[in-house]
Design brief:
The chain has four helices and 50 strands. It has 617 residues and is mainly β. An eight-stranded mixed β-sheet has the order 17-18-31-29-28-30-25-24, with no helix packed on it.
């Protein structure tokens, strides 16, 4: 099976240009990772300079076919001609520079699925040996499928089938853009429709200090390395800005002449890079599974001042301190040796400017403003349905936290203890919502547990507040399919207090409440609507704030309801007679009793009916 290759496409040598070299049998790609070579016919002849890359390993995402060779610059090989005396170029070097020999490249007699295959051979000790992929890249005397190769052109015309792609990190910056680094020996054309926006040089002047003391890369004032649609990346490391996180959406076409390396590391301002590094490759033991780590003789050791593009402890995109030994192959690092205090990390883009405050002050602040809430909060309710949390500072201040991707790590009760949260505040006049803009960070504040109050829905409704957690006592019933909790006064079941909508779905399952039974239910109140006058308000919890302004709420249960025994006939409270009909012996009906024998048909509020016999004298 061919690696990511539709049957209809062709992989033939066209003319001098950039190609990938793809083994027919193994479906792996030649990747130039060093310059060491030993002139022998054993299987270790090329294993220190060539790494075979799988066309299927390293998929980037669930909805693309990106595989590892797509983003590997070392798989791009410049082939100026085919024939008896060929020199191939890649990674700032050539086959001739590595081996001291020229190659013979010729079309094979084997055509596979409409695609030509090619043979590449060299003379070793007066014997013609064919380049092959057996247990790694090596040579052999026999012409086999291990040594038959597809040549896949990397041109604008073939971009739907064969292409190189920028490989950004999957975490965007604050503006929603994705970033990658690249260091290779050729330029690129940015084709129409590509997600690649620009490529940049970085200088020390581009590194700024934010108000909170953090260092950041001023992405608004970088020097572009793009002229028209050409990315001038030959021989210089660059920082690439992309619209999308998926490589297949960030296509590039190699173009121009290959560059010739001089010495490593290469520099572009304070960006540094190398074509070579350390890598895993097949050993010469004859096993596909055994790999050995090798270090190219041109690899650059990491310096204490080098920072690699990554994700910091707060989940932000940044150049961060890395523990790797060698500079990563075909990537760029940021050299911070010229930056004051040699920062441990440099954020990509200016960090958001937060107002540092308490929850109480944030709730009294401005709509759609960014806040750093310094007093950590207690998570009282976690809602998996929308990844949100109901939180309190323990001092009667409440906020709904829209946690998004951070939800799973902070949803448990008390998990924000010792944390500060950052986000945008909205809906301040109704149910305040703080939408997180980054992961919670450490805080020195100590949270206070909220005080829980018990309310009987008939006697102290006026004290109820929105977003309050409390125990609400009342009778459970269902009205028009809507569960509710109703209060009562005294022992008269017809003397009912107000009621509230009861939502058991989010936090309690299989509560098995019995209609007409009295419960104490721990709930959090959420504001639903408001009315100008009490006459227009439904019979739910309402409160007059002094300006004839009435509100109603839904109570979201956060614990299994607790049944309470009362001295009231609970069944009678829910099942009330609504109509009585008297039927005489002739079958005539009346709302008043007939003289003589009556069949009394009573219809109740729950829709049930009961028949009894009575006699009127």
């Amino acid at each position: 099976m061919m690696a990511c290759v539709p049957l209809a496409m062709h992989a033939d040598y066209i003319e001098a240009g950039f190609y990938r070299v793809h083994c027919k049998l193994s479906s792996r790609y030649v990747s130039v990772v060093g310059e060491e070579y030993s002139a022998s016919q054993s299987s270790d002849a090329f294993w220190k300079c060539i790494r075979m890359r799988s066309g299927y390993a390293g998929y980037r995402s669930y909805d693309t076919n990106d595989s590892v060779h797509i983003t590997d610059p070392a798989t791009i090989i410049y082939i100026p001609n085919i024939g008896s005396s060929c020199k191939l170029y890649a990674q700032g070097t050539s086959t001739y520079s590595i081996t001291g020999m020229t190659f013979k490249i010729a079309a094979s007699s084997t055509v596979y699925q409409g695609r030509k295959t090619y043979l590449a051979s060299i003379m070793v000790l007066f014997a013609r040996c064919y380049l092959q992929d057996y247990c790694g890249f090596d040579i052999g005397k026999e012409e086999t499928d291990n040594g038959r190769w597809f040549l896949e052109p990397l041109t604008a015309d073939s971009i739907n089938d064969y292409y190189f792609a920028a490989d950004p990190l999957s975490t965007p910056d604050a503006d929603g853009y994705y970033w990658a680094t690249l260091c290779c020996d050729y330029n690129f054309e940015i084709p129409e429709g590509s997600g690649v926006i620009d490529a940049y040089k970085v200088t020390a002047d581009n590194i700024k200090v934010a108000d909170d003391g953090s260092y950041y890369l001023d992405t608004e004032n970088l020097t572009s390395c793009v002229s028209g649609t050409t990315m001038n990346s030959s021989g210089v490391p660059v920082l690439i800005k992309c619209k999308y996180p998926y490589p297949s959406w960030n296509k590039l076409v190699p173009t121009g002449d290959v560059g010739n390396k001089t010495s490593f590391p290469l520099e572009n301002g304070i960006l540094k890079g190398n074509y070579f590094g350390s890598f895993l490759n097949n050993s010469n033991t004859g096993s596909w599974k055994e790999y050995t780590t090798y270090v190219s003789n041109n690899a650059t050791k990491m310096d204490a001042n080098y920072r690699t593009l990554g994700i910091d402890a707060n989940g932000k995109l940044a150049f961060v301190t890395d523990t790797i030994t060698y500079m990563p192959q075909n990537k760029a690092v940021l050299d911070v040796s010229s930056i004051t205090n040699t920062p441990a990390e440099v954020l990509i883009g200016k960090p958001m400017s937060y107002t540092y405050t308490t929850l109480a002050d944030a709730l009294a602040g401005k709509e759609d403003s960014l806040y750093h809430i310094s007093d950590n909060l207690i998570v009282v309710v976690a809602t998996d349905a929308d990844n949100s949390l109901w939180c309190t500072d323990g001092q009667d201040h409440w906020v709904k936290v829209a946690a998004g991707d951070y939800y799973a790590s902070i949803k448990e009760f008390g998990s924000l203890a010792g944390k500060s949260i950052h986000g945008t505040m909205s809906d301040l006049t109704t149910n305040p919502v703080l939408t997180l803009t980054e992961a919670p960070t450490e805080s020195t504040e100590t949270p206070t547990e909220p005080t829980l109050v018990e309310y009987n829905l008939a006697t102290n409704i006026a004290a109820v507040q929105a977003d309050e957690v409390a125990y609400f006592q009342g009778y459970y019933f269902v009205e028009n399919g809507t569960p509710k909790l109703r209060g009562y006064s005294g022992t008269n079941p017809n003397h009912r207090g107000q009621s509230l909508v009861l939502d058991l779905s989010k936090y309690v399952s299989d509560a098995n409440l019995t209609p007409g039974s009295f419960y104490s239910i721990k709930s959090i109140l959420q504001l639903n609507e408001a009315w100008e006058t009490s006459d227009s308000a439904p019979r739910r919890v309402s409160k007059d704030d002094g300006d004839s302004y009435f509100t109603n709420y839904t109570a979201y249960a956060i614990e299994v309801p607790n049944p309470i025994t009362t001295g009231v006939d609970e069944a009678a409270i829910e099942r009330q007679p609504v109509a009585v009909t008297y039927v005489n012996a002739l079958g005539q009906a009346s709302t008043t009793p007939w003289t003589g024998i009556n069949i009394v048909v009573t219809r109740y509020s729950d829709g049930s009916m009961q028949s009894t016999k009575s006699v009127k004298f």
